[in-house]
UniProtKB/TrEMBL annotation:
Membrane topology summary: Multi-pass membrane protein
Any Pfam family: DctQ
Family per record: Belongs to the TRAP transporter small permease family.
Transmembrane segments: 31-49, 70-89, 109-127
Organism of origin: Caldovatus aquaticus
Keyword Cytoplasm in record: no
Protein name (Swiss-Prot/TrEMBL): TRAP transporter small permease protein
Length: 139
């Protein structure tokens, strides 16, 4: 997050002072933001701090709340499994066809390769939380 803030601030200051833009800042900022978002999602899954709508679930008895949380984790595994699978296919296609990024001309798979890898981290955290919930250790 600090790297994103630093390169964006440098680009804004340089553009303001000289009317020249640092071309790489946008490309790297977007890639870093995806990485930060997926790492944050992974941490949220592990700690049970993911986004939820508690209106219906909060009124349930504790065993049913745990089941609802486990169902949410199962759906998250399914969702991020799809992201990991299709993200891996996308990264492979970009590698195979030698797709270059539009801004700097870097291989695009260097950016998209993080998507399936970090999606697997989210899946691992969600499965770990499901196991803890099934054992009654996390509530």
């Amino acid at each position: 997050m600090a790297a994103i803030a630093l390169i964006t601030a440098a680009n804004v200051a340089l553009r303001y002072l000289t009317d020249v833009s640092i071309a790489f800042t946008e490309e790297y900022s977007v890639a870093l933001m995806v990485i930060v978002a997926l790492l944050g999602t992974s941490l949220a899954m592990a700690g049970g701090r993911h986004i939820r709508i508690g209106y219906l679930v909060d009124g349930l008895p504790p065993p049913w709340r745990r089941r609802a949380e486990m169902a949410a984790m199962a759906l998250a595994v399914l969702c991020f499994g799809l992201i990991a699978g299709y993200g891996a296919l996308l990264a492979w296609d970009e590698y195979r066809f030698e797709v270059l990024s539009s801004g700097l001309g870097n291989p695009q798979w260097l950016y998209t390769g993080w998507l399936p890898l970090l999606s697997l981290a989210v899946i691992g955290r969600a499965v770990g939380r499901m196991v803890r919930l099934a054992r009654g250790r996390d509530g």
